[in-house]
Amino acid sequence: MIFRQLFETESATYTYLFGCTQTGQAVLLDPVLETVERDLQVLHDLGLRLSYTLETHIHADHVSSARKLKARVGSRIAGPAMDGLPCTDFGVAEERPLSLGSLHFQALFTPGHTDTHHAYLVVDGDTWRVFTGDALLIDGCGRTDFQNGDAATLYRSVQEKLFVLPDATLVYPAHDYQHRHVSSIAQEKERNPRLAGKSSAEFQAIMADLKLAHPQKMAYAVPANLACGQCPEDIPETLRRLCDPSFQGG
């Protein structure tokens, strides 16, 4: 398997590229609109063709490039089936993983950050990687105060779906704000300040006390991502041109 971790600085979002060495097919997990040209260049440099984009959840802090990439290169759009998005070509679920070539994405239903959030387990030989979206971050977790989030639900998701994975499983989150790249299940169980050794009640108290401002792009990012990255009327002009399928450039 070919694997790359890519980063978008404004929203501190990680996009993950997976390539099948047998078929040349590729998947981009959680792609960002502003980095379409970079992502296409990386695919070109690696000799891969993009078959699917895949989402962990409806993002509130950036606009997905799924629709733009479909218009540009004909890739298909995958995401949690329970979102019920008409723009999705393939709905993933725990009983319906996404597979192409040698790539296999086992969905893990991990609600709490949002009510339809999924993580993905990818096993490559002896290497286990779990792509946790916003359910589990390095030394943290995603917020639970909007998009039908719920702290008690997120606690159960982490404990019952993620912390039961082998300790050596590598943890790749959707974001990191301190330039960290990877963790492990063992590390998060031992030292995550919100979750390690905490009861559900303690975790809920921590989350209730965060008092975070809403993401700056939330007002237009959520409507856009409910349409797989189709920009709404109120999106800033700086992003509007990027939404145009015919636009190419930086």
UniProtKB/TrEMBL annotation:
InterPro entries linked to this entry: Metallo-B-lactamas, Mito_Persulfide_Diox, POD-like_MBL-fold, RibonucZ/Hydroxyglut_hydro
Keyword line: Hydrolase, Metal-binding
SMART domains recorded: Lactamase_B
A Pfam family that the UniProt record links to this protein: Lactamase_B
GO BP terms: glutathione metabolic process; hydrogen sulfide metabolic process
SUPFAM superfamilies the UniProt entry points to: Metallo-hydrolase/oxidoreductase (SSF56281)
GO molecular function, one term: metal ion binding
Keyword Hydrolase belongs to the record: yes
Domain Metallo-beta-lactamase: 12-175
Name under which the protein is recorded: MBL fold metallo-hydrolase
UniProt source species: Acidithiobacillus ferrooxidans (Thiobacillus ferrooxidans)
Lineage: Bacteria, Pseudomonadati, Pseudomonadota, Acidithiobacillia, Acidithiobacillales
